[in-house]
């Protein structure tokens, strides 16, 4: 196991270095942020002076070296637009995105998996057909359209839930959290449901597909022949074999929720990292580069965690890993 962990850590560091190079080159190719930072009336001398202050007059390789030299020490530079440390901006916005992504993932898991079991175990039932039809809408409709529909119905027409903002928050240390207050939950529900619908539909269809395949296998027929109740056959025997794909998809989906909630945060004015990215995309290169690099780190951590969960869920993976190491 130690050999596996060390190998994955080395692979993660190589991947992170490749991500940093790719992100930096892409941001460099998008253009000169000085043009957006200064008004149209600024002179060429003003632009040159600002470009020198921001070290944008240096070659790309030098700029990358300066940025990475600071980054390994935890210093991602100052925001061009706000003049504040980029890491402080990330720390302020990260809790909002984390709690939104976590609640969305919980909704997707707690609703999608039971509905997937229902559709897989009783595929011809009316409830299964309705769930599959609704899941098609969850996959097909754009997130921004679903968000606007939910906002119109729950916030504008009936005033049951607030439409925008984060609501009341409670400080824990230096971070603010809204899930600890009733008003915070009221503001959290609409964006969380909007963000979860696509992932809920994906999980539902995955569990249904896997369960349909597993219920046709010989060991299921043997379990039924022994008179084991159907609920126990599904819950203890069939579902255990669907855990690997569920863990895989859930890990990837959670990473996407953390990294790509831009549209939902913009629609609901949710003050998270996605909204920060939209605000910074044209002018604030340090914020965008840091955001994308941290997104890469998040995906690497999630993939690493998923690999460890594989070994805990399926002992055969541990055995195959040992055999491969011995060979």
Condensed summary:
With 327 residues, this protein is mainly α. Helices cover 74% and strands 2% of the residues. A two-stranded antiparallel sheet has the order 1-2.
Provide key terms for this protein.
2 strands; disordered C terminus; 15 helices; mainly alpha; 327 residues
Set down the secondary structure blueprint.
Elements: H1 2-29, H2 33-37, H3 44-53, H4 60-71, H5 86-121, H6 126-140, H7 143-157, E1 170-172, E2 175-177, H8 182-214, H9 218-225, H10 230-238, H11 243-259, H12 262-267, H13 273-280, H14 285-313, H15 315-326
Antiparallel strand pairs: 1-2
Helix pairs in contact: 1-14, 5-6, 5-8, 5-11, 5-14, 6-8, 7-8, 8-11, 11-14, 13-14, 14-15
Structural class: mainly alpha
User: What is the overall pLDDT average?
Assistant: 84
Number of DSSP E strands: 2
CATH class of the domain at 86-279, please? Mainly Alpha
Biggest beta sheet attributes: 2 strands, antiparallel
In spatial order, strands of the major sheet run 1-2
Helix fraction, binned, reads over 70%
Q: Which fold name is given in CATH as the topology of the domain at 86-279?
A: MetI-like fold
| Beta strand % | under 5%
Level-2 CATH architecture of the domain at 86-279: Orthogonal Bundle
Order of helices and strands: HHHHHHHEEHHHHHHHH
- List the total number of helices: 15
CATH superfamily of the domain at 86-279: MetI-like
Task: Report, as a whole number of angstroms, the end-to-end distance.
Answer: 15 Å
* Shape call: globular
Whole-number radius of gyration?
24 Å
Residue stretches low in confidence (pLDDT < 50, at least 5 long) are: 319-327
């Amino acid at each position: 196991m130690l050999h596996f962990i060390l190998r994955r850590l080395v692979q993660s560091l190589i991947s992170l270095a490749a991500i940093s190079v790719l992100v930096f080159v892409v941001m460099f190719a998008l253009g000169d942020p000085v043009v957006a930072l200064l008004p149209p009336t600024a002179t060429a001398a003003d632009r040159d002076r600002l470009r020198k202050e921001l070290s944008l007059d240096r070659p790309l390789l030098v700029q990358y070296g300066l940025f990475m030299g600071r980054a390994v020490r935890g210093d991602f530079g100052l925001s061009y637009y706000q003049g504040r440390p980029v890491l402080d901006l990330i720390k302020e916005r990260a809790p909002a995105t984390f709690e939104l992504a976590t609640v969305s993932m919980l909704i997707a898991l707690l609703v999608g998996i039971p509905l997937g079991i229902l559709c897989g175990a009783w595929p011809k039932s009316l409830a299964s057909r309705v769930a599959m039809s609704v899941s098609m809408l969850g996959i097909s409709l754009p997130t921004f359209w679903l968000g606007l529909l939910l906002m119109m119905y729950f916030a504008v027409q009936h005033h049951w839930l607030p439409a925008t903002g984060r609501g009341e928050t409670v400080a824990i240390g230096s971070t603010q959290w809204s899930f600890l207050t009733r008003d915070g939950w009221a503001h959290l529900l609409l964006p969380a449901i909007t963000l979860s619908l696509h992932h809920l539909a994906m999980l539902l269809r995955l569990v249904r597909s896997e369960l349909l395949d597993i219920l046709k296998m010989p060991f299921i027929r043997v379990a039924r022949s022994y008179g084991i109740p159907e609920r126990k056959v599904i819950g203890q025997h069939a579902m255990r074999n669907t855990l690997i794909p569920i863990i895989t998809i859930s890990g990837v989906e959670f990473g996407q929720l953390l990294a790509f909630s831009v549209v939902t945060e913009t629609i609901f004015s949710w003050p998270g990292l996605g909204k920060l990215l939209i605000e910074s995309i044209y002018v604030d290169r340090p914020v965008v580069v840091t955001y994308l690099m941290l997104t890469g780190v998040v995906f690497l951590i999630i993939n690493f965690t998923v690999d460890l969960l594989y070994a805990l869920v399926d002992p055969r993976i541990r055995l195959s890993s040992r055999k491969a190491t011995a060979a």
